[in-house]
Amino acid sequence: MVKNAVEIHDLHVVRGGRTVLEHLGVSIGGGVTGLLGPSGCGKSTLMRCLVGVQQVEAGSVTVFGEDAGSPGLRARVGYVTQAASVYDDLSVDENLRFFARVLGVGREHVDRVVDAVDLGDHRGQVVGRLSGGQRSRASLAVALLGEPDLLVLDEPTVGLDPVLREDLWALFHRLAERGAAVFVSSHVMDEAERCDRLLLMREGRIIADGTPGEIKEKAGAETVEGAFLAIVRRDAA
Ligand SMILES: Nc1ncnc2c1ncn2[C@@H]1O[C@H](COP(=O)(O)OP(=O)(O)OP(=O)(O)O)[C@@H](O)[C@H]1O
């Protein structure tokens, strides 16, 4: 199990003249860590910092001891954005074989990741004709090709039906059990319970950090959503 996959210190990000992340500090280790907060609170921006594609005003982000985005991290970090990152005019198989070549991994990995995301029945189908959920699973399959030690998943379950959501969360836990650090964002509070550790975010700051149980207990709330509201009200008082 990875202990401190990610170390963030005093991270400050301004986008479009607005402060989006405010002197944020946090470490992320093994297991499934959820980043939850309302739309626009800065989740995607934080994830972009982890993979080294966000311009930052101040602070540092290291991943496995190296600066985020370093070439040495390329094979160790898998990143799935909200937009599908596969080619629409290629089939699932063709996409995976192409990315396997780019990443320098053997073809046998294609079978593994197709099974992992349960796209076996759609291998030969052109991605442009898949449903939104199937397309996001194809993107996830690409991210799994290199067997990353850190998986950064930006709202991977948006638009998926409850059964697929359940399957994907089970997959995240299987990956974490095999030793990967899995960092998943969501703005759906009912996904919180599925995380080993939760970071609640609001307006560029982390306002709670703990297991779902710890966060609820500390806030005196029955649900994570209730805890979020209680913390916001307490902060405003
Ligand atoms: N390219 C950009 N230029 C300027 N500002 C941006 C840009 N992208 C995002 N922002 C702003 O940064 C803030 C944080 O956006 P971000 O996408 O990180 O939020 P989020 O929590 O991921 O939201 P969502 O859940 O809706 O995806 C928002 O106020 C947004 O308007």
From TrEMBL:
<protein>
    <submittedName>
        <fullName>ATP-binding cassette domain-containing protein</fullName>
    </submittedName>
</protein>
<dbReference type="InterPro" id="IPR017871">
    <property type="entry name" value="ABC_transporter-like_CS"/>
</dbReference>
<dbReference type="Pfam" id="PF00005">
    <property type="entry name" value="ABC_tran"/>
</dbReference>
<feature type="domain" description="ABC transporter">
    <location>
        <begin position="6"/>
        <end position="228"/>
    </location>
</feature>
<keyword id="KW-0547">Nucleotide-binding</keyword>
<dbReference type="GO" id="GO:0005524">
    <property type="term" value="F:ATP binding"/>
</dbReference>
<keyword id="KW-0067">ATP-binding</keyword>
<dbReference type="GO" id="GO:0016887">
    <property type="term" value="F:ATP hydrolysis activity"/>
</dbReference>
<dbReference type="InterPro" id="IPR027417">
    <property type="entry name" value="P-loop_NTPase"/>
</dbReference>
<dbReference type="InterPro" id="IPR003439">
    <property type="entry name" value="ABC_transporter-like_ATP-bd"/>
</dbReference>
<dbReference type="InterPro" id="IPR003593">
    <property type="entry name" value="AAA+_ATPase"/>
</dbReference>
